[in-house]
Each structure stands twice: as C-alpha cells, then as structure tokens.
Specification:
This protein has five helices and ten strands, in the order αβαββααββββαβββ. The chain is of the alpha/beta class. A hairpin with a 5-residue loop joins strand 5 and strand 6. Helix 2 packs parallel to helix 5. The longest helix is centred in the C-terminal third of the chain and has 13 residues.
C-alpha cells in the first residue's frame, strides 16, 4: 500500500479500512469529528452512542484555534461563527474578596497568531450546539451508520489466518 492509499483511507484491497468498517464509540464532539473525518476519506464508519440522543449537557464551551481548523475542514465553522461568540483576546484577572475584578494580570491578543493559523481567535459556543452540526454532516454520508442506544461494552481482536485478525466490539 502506498502513502496515497493511506491518505485516502484505503486498505490494500482498495476498500476503506482494509475492507472493513471503523467502529467509533461515543457521539460526543471527538467521536463525531473522528467519524466525520474518516467518512470524508472514504472509510465506512459505525458510530455507537449509549444514549438515545446526543448529550445536551455541555462539558466545554470554548474552541481554540487548532480545534477550529479541524472543525473548518469538517464544514461546521461558519455555523459556529454565526451561533457563537468570537473572542479575540484572553484575559486573566485577579478577583477580590467581594467578587470584583481588582486587576488584569495577563492579556493575550490572539491576533498575534494570524500568521500561524487561519483562526486567530477562540469561539465560545456550548458543546451541545456543536455536536448536532457534526451529526448532520455525518448523517448525510452513505458511509456512516449511526446507532443511538448502543453502548460499546468491550472490544478486542481475534487472530485469523496468516497472521491477520478481526476486530470485534460487544454492544
């Protein structure tokens, strides 16, 4: 297999993931982004999520420049910019006993990153607003199978002939 085949997500037989399917456990932002990146490279994916729907609880609300580059490549950055708040500075403040800001002790201008990244800012937007964007992109692909209410409980490999093996996932 040459490096071009690897970049396109093709195995030695010309099919995605060496002729199989990649299983992704979890429909959080990382699982959805990984699954979407794989299908965009021609790899068949089954996404398993133990909940009946996407998690509405937000564990994160800030997306930094390197993550924004990934999300831009996945086609969701424009909607994120429309829904979120663009932060071009980061400030750290010392807060007094009464909860008032006493002073700013660090101020970072993210515009200084303009030569290093196409996204010299952060976007403040709840994770629960981003996962539906990724899911919609994934659902549009015929290479993706999405199973809600399906928890991956174990995984492993089974040795096959000639040193090859098969991966398995218990659901």
């Amino acid at each position: 297999m040459d490096s071009g085949e690897m970049e396109r997500g093709r195995g030695p037989n010309g099919r995605g993931a060496a002729g199989g399917r990649v299983i992704v456990a979890g429909a959080g932002p990382v699982g959805l982004a990984a699954a979407l990146a794989l299908v965009r490279r021609g790899v068949r994916v089954t996404l398993l999520e133990k909940r009946p729907t996407l998690n509405r609880a937000s564990r994160a609300s800030t997306f930094h420049p390197p993550t924004l580059s990934i999300l831009a490549a996945l086609g969701v950055i424009d909607t994120m910019l429309a829904k979120g708040r663009k932060a071009e500075r980061i400030q750290y403040r010392r807060v007094g006993a009464e909860g008032r800001t006493e002073r700013v002790f660090a101020d970072f201008d993210l515009a200084l990153l303009a030569g290093e990244t196409p996204h010299p800012y952060r976007i403040h937007l709840e994770q629960a607003a981003v996962t539906p964007l990724l899911l919609a992109q994934l659902e549009a692909s015929p290479l993706a199978e999405i199973r809600f209410g399906a928890e991956a409980t174990a995984c492993g490999t089974q040795e096959g002939k000639a040193g090859g093996g098969k991966a398995w996932v218990a659901v």
